[in-house]
Amino acid sequence: MNADKPVSPTRAIEVRGLEKSFGEHLALCGIDLGVNPGECLVIFGPNGAGKTTLLKIMSTLLKPSAGRVFLDGIDIRDKPTEIRRKLSLVSHQTFLYDDLTIFENLKFYAKMYDIGDADKRIREVVAWAQLESRVHDKVGTLSRGLQQRASLARAVLHNPSFLFLDEPEVGLDPHASDMVRDVLSDNDYGSRTVVITTHNLERGLKLGDRIAIVHKGKIVYRVSGQELAGLDFREIYDRYTGTGR
Amino acid sequence: MNRAFTKILAIFWKDLLNEFRTKEIIVSVLVFILLVLVIFNFAFDTGTGASDTVASGILWVALTFGGVIGLNRTFAIEKENSRLEGLMLCPVDRSVIYWGKLAGIFTFMLVIAVVITPVFLALFNLPIFLPRLALIIILALLGFSAVGTLFSALAVNTRSRDIMLPVLLLPVVVPVIVSAVKATGPVLAGMPWGEISTWLQIMVAFDIIYLVIATLVFEYVIEE
């Protein structure tokens, strides 16, 4: 059985035979993928392809119906609390409380992640997100772009080894969009392994070391960034997802 | 253990701060309960003296249904903006989330009880200083909050959560509410401890049983 093979010691992320069903609807059917440490995997796919479900399972938010996910060689079902300390998820929802300030939100999450010297770390991520002038403003009073920048600050607060971004550019201003790219190239604390889902082919191709297309719960195409040079990815995407017809 | 307690306090403090800013739960529940008390006060014409049993029933009807309104809101706040997912991504045991939310809900209910009980006693021409009533309120609200936190987390993922919560919650909390009604009557009539000790024991047992059960099953309730 594929799911019982020994875990590759070189893979930061290894997904084997992953399946997820919601009632009779099969959202994921037999996903296998591997990502090396420090790599960025970009997953493209149309709405309903299973991208968000895949990221939610990898983040421990959903349990798979079958198959296994290993992060740093650890089965996420075995040590979910330990795994959660190493990962972060950014989606178009910020996970922040509108009636608390940015500082209060970050302080709350700092306590939940046992961050020592939380005030210093909050100052660092707030400076990185260029939110110093708004740090004591309630999140609900911020624009969508600023809220997502605060969400990115929350996501990197505990310096995660794994960063999962689920269509993070939705509703972002160009500056916040650039910040997503900064997160991926931020080597201050060592390299992060990143999985990002997006509809934005141009931006996704710039970010990805590996590219995959998910369609109807399966990975229908995968390629490394270098192998993609010279290929018409739009044509490939349309062919595999049927969106060009 | 110490780390878990720090995180429970963090969730509690966050809920307290949020409520202090919005006043969504306390104000709406207070208005509802005061309205119920005033209506019953007119219905039973306290000038002639409502019986202690009727008065205790009125108090607990108001607190129970007011509490359901408050419970509906506490996890709805976490559902908005997918904040519950943010909480679930934190490296904490799910029971920490339960105890953090429970601490908030129990505190809100106590604050509401502290405000409305003197009003209730005054409206029904009852003595204001009743320390034994405080004990009954604490025990009953703890049991109500213990079950309520669990079912509130369960109902928040359903489409008709406003209806689902009372349907799930009220049958389960009947023992603790009946005990509270039965214990409150003799206290209002000034009867001795012996008259209420059985009901107090039932409430203590209910609280312990449901705190343990809820701590154990919360993980399964909150996930998917």
Secondary-structure element string of chain B: HHHHHHHH
Which residues of chain B form runs of ≥5 with pLDDT under 50? none
> What does the average pLDDT of chain B come to?
91
Radius of gyration of chain B: 18 Å
Number of strands of chain B: 0
Measured by DSSP, the beta-strand proportion of chain A falls in 25-35%
Tell me the quaternary state.
heterodimer
Major β-sheet strand ordering of chain A: 6-7-8-3-9-10
Distance between the termini of chain B: 27 Å
Total helix count of chain B? Answer: 8
What composes the largest sheet of chain B?
Answer: none
Form type of chain B: globular
Structural class of chain B: mainly alpha
- Name the helix and strand elements of chain A from N-terminus to C-terminus, one letter apiece: EEEHEEHEHHHEHEHEEH
What are the segments of chain A in which pLDDT stays under 50 over at least 5 consecutive residues?
Answer: none
* General shape of chain A: globular
Report the radius of gyration of chain A as a whole number of Å. Answer: 18 Å
Describe this structure in words.
The complex is a heterodimer of chains A (245) and B (224). Chain A has 245 residues and is of the alpha/beta class. Chain A has eight helices and ten strands. The model of chain A has no long low-confidence stretch (mean pLDDT 87). Chain B is an all-alpha fold and 224 residues long. Chain B contains eight helices and no strands. Chain B is globular, with a radius of gyration of 18 Å. The mean pLDDT of chain B is 91. The chains are: A alpha/beta (245), B mainly alpha (224).
Structure in a nutshell:
The complex is a heterodimer of chains A (245) and B (224). Chain A is of the alpha/beta class. Chain A has helices at residues 51-58, 80-86, 102-112, 118-128, 144-156, 174-185, 201-207, 233-241, and strands at 13-22, 25-35, 40-44, 66-71, 74-75, 87-90, 162-166, 193-198, 210-215, 218-224.
Keywords, separated by commas or semicolons:
heterodimer; A: alpha/beta; six-stranded mixed β-sheet; 8 helices; 10 strands; B: 224 residues; mainly alpha; 83% helix; 0% strand
